[in-house]
Structures are given as structure tokens and as C-alpha cells.
Amino acid sequence: MPSVLLERDNGSPLSHRNPSANPQHKSREMATTREVAVCPADDDAIATNPRTRKTQTWDYVWRSGLAGGMAGSAAKTVVAPLDRVKILFQASSPQFAKYTGSWFGVVTAMKDIYVEDGTRGLFRGHSATVLRIFPYAAIKFLAYEQIRALVIWSPEQETPARRFLSGSLAGVTSVFFTYPLEVVRVRLAFETKRDSRSSLSAICRRIYYEASPTIQISGKGDGGALKSTANATLQAVTPHHGLPNFYRGFSATMMGMLPYAGMSFLTHDTVRDILRHPAISPYTTLPRRENSPEHKPPPLRSWAQLCAGGIAGLVSQTSAYPLEVIRRRMQVGGAVGDGRRLRIVETARRIWAERGWRGFWIGLSIGYVKVVPMVAASFYVYERGKGWLGI
Questions:
Q1: Who wins on pLDDT, 144 or 39?
Q2: 361 secondary structure, DSSP code
Q3: Of 257, 321, 331, 355, which is least packed with CB atoms within 10 Å of its CB?
Q4: Of 244, 292, 275, 263, which Cα lies nearest the Cα of 390?
């Protein structure tokens, strides 16, 4: 008994002052000396803990993909009528060109579509949209989670540049696998005449068999045999029909997706971190779910989550809109003009010749009306979906 008293210091055994002698004290000491993340949401995808290993499991992949697919489908359904009108404006549909440039024109265009085709007219092409957007959004969100875990694996690497890079790569990955469905959707939405309605299969066949105009080398003087050989070579290497038709405007899409997806994820994550700041978190966050992982920060309230997504949509839409206009014109190249595939520079010159610099921003106002609620709904459903699925 006396030996025990000699070993005590302020009521605690001497052995408790030795970290190696008491695992509980050691764990408490490590918890107190652990570096605090820069932002409350930084721990959400940092690879210095078991979180990264969990992110790279098949269970997490399919759950995050399912949540992303649901988010994309819900967001596109909300804005389907506006999306139809925006495509008609961007692609310079002759029937609706007179409505561009004003909010009243947007309303009038929607009214004319409703009078001519009813509610189904406002949602024309939406079946192809859902068919495309579910895998697109699923791949985009799960790719972002995986790429983010690889690019950002320590608190020091939680930088805007790495967030932007993760979002850009995720967007490019998703577009690569789903772009043909986007072309089909745009062509369905571009049709406006009642007697020219086409089914999904008919549109696919039409795009597949669209042939480019014949290219011929002409000129005066000798060298007829050389010209014939050159023309034959051009005809041999020029694609007349097939799968390349489903990738009209793909290069412009890739260029536009880099700033769009990058700014979207960067802005959303940054605003989300600000809204989780300890000074305002009592007003912007909800209590943790019982099944919520320990590393996951508390979810934002509905209004805060929608605000973060809406600001992300506003910034990303502005940064990539000129390239989106070019992409739309390239996608409908087989439905208007001579059917020849236009390159990015050639398409940009044609838009400039028709409308000047304003042509690259035509439909931007309706783009804001569409993209802000769409991105807000997308991030909202995704974050809530991850909570429902326990990730």
C-alpha cells in the first residue's frame, strides 16, 4: 500500500504519465495533437485516413454512382421545358429565331410549343435526356469522388487548383462515355414541325447514315490524273456515315467541360466549406444522422445546400457558355445547312458573321434560369442521396 502512494502524483499513478504504458492516454494525446483540417469539409476526401480506402471500395462506388444518377435525373426533369427552348435558341431554329433576346420571347416560345404540341412538346427529347443523364451524372459524381481521393490525399493538398482539376477530369470522363446520347437528345429537341416528329430509333438511324457532301479538288491546267487520285483519296479517308456522326461537336464539348465541371465542383465545395464555418454552422447545418460515418461533416440545411449548388451553377455556366453555343451548332450540323461537319474555328466564325459577339452569349439569360436551379437540385439530391445510402 505505501508503494502505491509513492507512485501517485496528484492522485494519478506514475505510469499514467508514460504514454507507452497507457494506450488510452496515448490515443487521447494523438487526438489532441492531430492537425485540424483547414475547412470542416476537408476530411470528406482526404487520403490520410481509412476514408480513402473506403472510397475506393466497390460498395462506395456503386452507392455514389446511384446517388449521382438520381441527382442528375431529378435536376434535368425540373428544367426540361427551359432546356428545350434554350436548345432552339442556341441552334438558331428558324421558327424560333424571332423570340430570342428577351424574357418575353422565352415565355412566348414556351407558349407556342405548348399550343402546338401540348405538354409533351415542352418535354420533347426528355426521354433521351434521362437515358443520357443518369449514366452521365453517375459517372461524373463517382469519378469526382475517386479522382479527388487520389489528387487530394493530405490536408496540405486541399487547394482550389486540385479541386478544379478533380472536377474537370470527372466531367471529361463522364462526357466521353455518354456523348452520343447527348447528340440524340439535342436532335430530338431541335425538331419543331408536327409532321416531322421522329422516334428515338429513327433519329439514331438518321444520324448514323447522314453523309457529308462530296469533296472535290478543282482547278485549271494539267494534272488531271493527279486530281483524280487526290479526289479518290479524299473520298476514301472522309467518313460518309457511321459512329463519328454521333460525336459532332465533341472537341468543343471537351474544351467546354474543363472549365464547366471544374468551376462547378470547385465553387460548390468552397461555398459548402464557408457555410460550415463554426461561426455560422449552427444556422446552416443539421444534426448528424445516426448512421452517418464519423469522418463525414454534418449535412447542410436545405436552403444552404441549394444556395451552394445555385452559386456553383451560376459561376460554371458563365465560364463555359461560349463553348456551349459552339457545341450546339456543331451537334445540329446535320439538320441544318449542307450537312457538312464544321470544326470549332469554322463554327465560331459563322456565329460571329451571323450575330457578332452577342451570338456567343445568346440564350445566356435562359441558361441562368435553367442551370442555377438544375445544379442546385443536382447537388442537393446527391448530398441527400449519399446520406440515404449511408455514405
A1: 144
A2: G
A3: 355
A4: 292
Give the separation between CA 212 and CA 333, rounded to whole angstroms.
Answer: 10
* Mean pLDDT along residues 128-142: 89
Distance, in Å, from the CA atom of 155 to the CA atom of 319, rounded to the nearest integer, reads 28
Cα–Cα distance, 359 to 67 (Å, whole number): 37
pLDDT tens, 276-310? 999 999 999 998 877 676 777 889 999 999 999 99
Q: Phi and psi at residue 94, in whole multiples of 5°?
A: -55, -35
pLDDT tens for each residue of 317-376? 998 888 888 877 876 665 455 555 667 888 888 888 888 888 888 878 877 888 899 999
As a whole number of angstroms, the distance between CA 183 and CA 116 comes to: 24
Which residue is it, cell 490524273? 225
What DSSP state is assigned to residue 123? Answer: T
CA dist 330 and 183 (Å) reads 10
> Which residue spans within 159-313 are E strands per DSSP?
none
What is the sign of the dihedral through the CA atoms of 328, 329, 334 and 335? positive
Report in angstroms the alpha-carbon separations of 270 from 40, 42, 111, 170: 11, 10, 39, 17
**Distance between CA atoms of 288 and 137, rounded to whole angstroms?**
26
What is the pLDDT at residue 27? Answer: 47
| 8 Å CB contact between 321 and 360 | yes
| Residue with cell string 414556351 | 110
- Joined grid coordinates for residue 325: 453555343
Q: Cα separation of 241 and 213, whole Å?
A: 11
In sequence order, what are the residues at sequence separation of 6 or more whose Cβ sits closer than 8 angstroms to the Cβ of residue 187? 125, 203, 206, 207, 331, 332, 334, 335
Please tell me the distance from the alpha carbon of residue 349 to that of residue 355, in angstroms, as a whole number: 10
Q: Give CA–CA dist 318/325, Å, rounded.
A: 12
Q: In terms of Cα–Cα distance, which of 329, 366, 368 is closest to 349?
A: 329
Residue of higher predicted confidence among 197 and 199: 199
**Structure confidence by residue, pLDDT tens digits, 205-251:** 888 887 655 444 455 554 555 556 555 554 444 445 678 888 877 87
> 192-226 in b/e burial notation, b at 16+ Cβ within 10 A?
beeeeeeeeeebbeebeebebeeeeeeeeeeeeee
User: Average pLDDT of 261-273?
Assistant: 95
Sign of the CA dihedral 142, 293, 267, 69? Answer: positive
